[in-house]
Amino acid sequence: MDGFHRSHVYMLEFAASSTREKLEKARNDLQTAYEGFVQKLNQQHQTDRTELENRLKEFYTAECEKLRNIYIEEAEKYKTQLQEQFDNLNAAHETTKLEIEASHSEKVELLKKTYETSISGKGAFCHFSRDVMERHRIH
């Protein structure tokens, strides 16, 4: 090989080496850019995930609070309804009790009058019988 060819080969090798270095640098730059992009994408994904988790927690908390309020409201309605039924039952019981007591008092009074009448009748009969017996003795 002569000097011309050698210098030409040398220049080609130099150009290839220079191109290889440029390609390697470009590849390294692309790798760095890719890794930066993936890192930013992962960070955005984590940020989105955290935001979504927070929104879900807020939604869940709000829904739980709504359900709790509905439960309390329904429990209060039921409590009021039961209290009304209890009060009505107490009032009916008290009315029945007073009616029974009044009826009992009336029956007791009637029994007293009947007893007194029967005693006064027996007393009159006894007086009448005594008078009759005394008359028979005297005569």
Automatic annotation (TrEMBL):
Protein keywords: Coiled coil, Nucleus
Primary location: nucleus
Biological process (GO), any one: regulation of macrophage chemotaxis
A Gene Ontology molecular function term of the record: microtubule binding
GO cellular component, one term: cytoplasm
SUPFAM superfamilies: Apolipoprotein A-I
Coiled-coil intervals, chain numbering: 72-99
Compartmental location: Nucleus
InterPro entries associated with the record: MTUS1/CCDC69
UniProt family annotation: Belongs to the MTUS1 family.
Name recorded for this polypeptide: Uncharacterized protein
Organism name: Neotoma lepida (Desert woodrat)
